[in-house]
Amino acid sequence: SQPSSLRGLWVLDLKTGQVLFTERVAHGKNTGNLEARHFSNEEGSNQSSLGLFRTAETYRGKHGYSLRLDGLEPGINDAARDRAIVMHGADYATGAFARKHGRLGRSWGCPALDPAISADVIDTISGGTLLFAWHPAGELVEESGFLGCE
Question: Are the CB atoms for 85 and 110 separated by under 8 Å?
């Protein structure tokens, strides 16, 4: 629910309670303009997905060093791998882009980061870290099996 021009990705070390990163993150082009408002699990929607993901393997693709994400919530984000929803760096996810345009650019649904920090974030969370994408108005609030778990 934060404007994309602000830092909305938080990487936490749950063992130490330390905040490792706070970064700007771009969302899907059909998710919203300045703020994310629309979410999907559908191929071709160009929208971001909400819910709990497990980070998987890294690879080099058309956006350079990237991280595959596996959605863990049936009907909410379980099509992430088939949709190629991955974390990657992008020139449209920088502070300079946000200052010039008043917001970050848009992905096709991927959480895109500033290329200057993306490899560090990816290396920190790859290989099985849990990543939770949340929005207070999304259907996820009622549907997620992970909200309210102990």
Answer: yes
Token pair belonging to 3:
């404007």
Give the residue from 23, 81, 27, 24 showing the smallest Cα distance to 57. 81
The number of angstroms, rounded, from the C-alpha of 7 to the middle of its chain's C-alpha atoms is 12
Phi, psi (5° rounding) for residue 95? -60, -40
Instruction: Choose among 41, 2, 43: nearest CA to 140.
Output: 41
Task: State whether residue 91 is helix, strand or coil.
Answer: helix
Sign (positive or negative) of CA dihedral 124, 128, 129, 135: positive
User: How does pLDDT run across 62-118, given as a tens digit for each residue?
Assistant: 999 999 999 999 999 999 999 999 999 999 999 999 999 999 999 999 999 999 999
